[in-house]
Amino acid sequence: GDAIPTLGGLLLPGTAAVQPPVQLDDPELAEAAASVARITGVAYACGLSSSGSGFVIGADRVVTNAHVVAGVDRPVVELPGREARDGRVVYFDPIGDIAVIAVDDLDAEPLDVVPVLPAGSSAAVQGYPHGGPFESMSAAVLAVGTVPVPDIYDESSNLREIYTLEANVRPGNSGGPLLTADGDVAGLVFARGGEQESRGYASTSTELAPIVEGAAGWQSPVSSGSCTR
């Protein structure tokens, strides 16, 4: 499975004029793609396989959504043009829907994380929709704000700073980066909108910053919870 949460009306679009789309063949975006990974795994307790996306945030560290690796003991990380590598979940937050995977000797360039983009900004989403080939797509920031967002088990809602996006986010894009034209990370994709196909949601770089800061210190495997479906 490569499911992505479908959420409606988290943060309504504003009225800011949207900038022209980024050029998807921009060299900086192509360089960033080398650090965007396909994440797969099996939640044996549920008999389910999962597939999503992620990206390098530090030495031997990849970030993704918690719902991508929920219940997975040994996630597999595959960067473009490289062999798939086994990893271990070293950070798992089902409330913020963020997980960090450690992959020994990954030797990949971390992506820089930049401040929150304002509404109207153009951007790109990179990842592996439906677990298939890598894709880069245009995105636009329609709104930015802090709103209640359900946890991955839909047991509670907690405040999170997010973007509402105009982007064709699909299953498998979960955990992929929202990138500026310079190839820097401005957010982490976590859901698609239920109101229309071209709507998506991403956590902002405000939510990512403490994860990037703490990633190097997380060494030991942690529980990845139970599967979400």
Summarize the structure.
The protein is mainly β. It has three helices and 14 strands.
Topology readout:
Blueprint: E1 6-7, H1 27-33, E2 36-43, E3 48-58, E4 61-64, H2 66-69, E5 76-78, E6 85-86, E7 88-93, E8 98-102, E9 122-127, E10 135-150, E11 157-166, E12 177-179, E13 185-193, E14 199-204, H3 205-214
Parallel strand pairs: 1-13
Antiparallel strand pairs: 2-3, 2-5, 3-4, 4-8, 5-6, 7-8, 9-10, 9-12, 10-11, 11-14, 12-13, 13-14
What features would you describe in this structure?
The strands form two sheets. Strands 6-5-2-3-4-8-7 form a seven-stranded antiparallel beta sheet. A six-stranded antiparallel β-barrel has the order 9-10-11-14-13-12. The chain folds into two domains: 123 residues, Thrombin, subunit H (Beta Barrel); 76 residues, Beta Barrel (Thrombin, subunit H), CATH 2.40.10.10. With 229 residues, it is mostly beta strands. Strand 2 and strand 3 form a beta hairpin.
For the record, what is the CATH homologous superfamily label of the largest domain? Answer: Trypsin-like serine proteases
Q: What would CATH call the class of the largest domain?
A: Mainly Beta
Shape category: globular
Number of DSSP helices? Answer: 3
Q: H/E element string?
A: EHEEEHEEEEEEEEEEH
Number of strands: 14
Structural class: mainly beta
Range of helix content: under 10%
Distance between the termini: 9 Å
Output mean pLDDT.
Answer: 94
CATH topology assignment of the largest domain: Thrombin, subunit H
User: CATH architecture of the largest domain, please?
Assistant: Beta Barrel
Using only C-alpha atoms, the radius of gyration works out to 16 Å
